[in-house]
Predict the 3D structure of the following.
Amino acid sequence: MAFLIAAVQMVTLAQAIAIAAARSPTLQIAADTYRLTRANVDLSKTPYQPNVVGTLSAIHGSSNAAAQAPSEDLARVGVTQLVYDGGHVLAQIRAARASEAAGAGTLARSAQQLSYTVGQTYYNALEARAAVRLASRIVAQDRAQEDLIRAQIDAGIASHVDLATAQIPTAQALVQVARAQGQNIAAVAAFDNAMGLHADAGVEPVDDATGEAGRTLIPGEPVEYDAALAQALAHRPDYQSAQHAVVAAGDALRAARTLAAPQVSLVANAGVVEFPGNQLGTPANNYVSASMTLPLYDQGVKNAQTESAAIQVDLETATLTQTELGIELDVRQAFGILGGAHEAVVQAQAELKTAQEVLTDTQVQYRAGITNLALLLNAQSGLTQAETDRLSAVFALRQAEQSYLYALGDVALPTPPP
């Protein structure tokens, strides 16, 4: 992976997410946490497995010669098998499996969170780079205006004061270029960091022709709130995780309630035993038995554990409700922001078109001496603002699309239109 990163300095969004998935410590932590839940499932099954114990022992002598030495097993193998426990172990297994399913949902949502973060920083970096290009283009436009005024001075219809006045927007535009370049460095560093790379790795997003386009990159997503909410509730892994957590808490409560049930086990032993002074060798010591353990008094441990498990059920149920409300809010906000972002792009494009027309007409009028420098500079400023507004609107749309996908729990990447 290090060689790949060193060789590829420009990456697509899909490549950036793949790099982040391989290097992100946050996702690794989520994956390890999920592995623990899987291990707990295996651990919960162990009481149903036979318990086999082997013993080897010997007595070499006694400090009391007059005492009768007890019999002593030389070798023994014992097997204990749980037969009945009131469903305690089964409830624990079900709780562990539900916890594993909840952990899988948490891991999936962590992966979506990582994709979302990378997507946000990806388009932030693209916007920062586009802002540098725009600021440089504005400088060129301002200098073109200076050339126009110089031509007017040569024609005797403008003064050097007019040229000095026109140079002010150029100086301001150069300041914006410097700021944009600084923001570009910061945005690329954030992008590298989101991928789990060093902040100075220098990996940048590929220039995407659709990045500055006004079209949506997610044409197949729901266009109505109710449909979007239904999709989110069906696909959001954090919601599914919360549901499984409620199930796990319920099974843990059932397990706690079965602590008072008797436990019945079968015991089988096979071995040889030696008696002191026995001249017959080492006779076998084999037997099969059954044992039952019945809790009589446990200092209130069972009641306390049952109460704690019942409280955990209430907590997980409240968390599920809170998660559902959060999803509704996420979808409602993302849906509204996405609609507003679409409309903002339309309006910004109209603003830019009008500003271009106004500046062109004003330049013609200024050359003809019909209008003054103030109106020309106002038209020039209007075009600068319109270009900035359009750039901000387009990348706000890209960010809104990312937020909308994240709110829906859609792990698919945006698909550029043909």
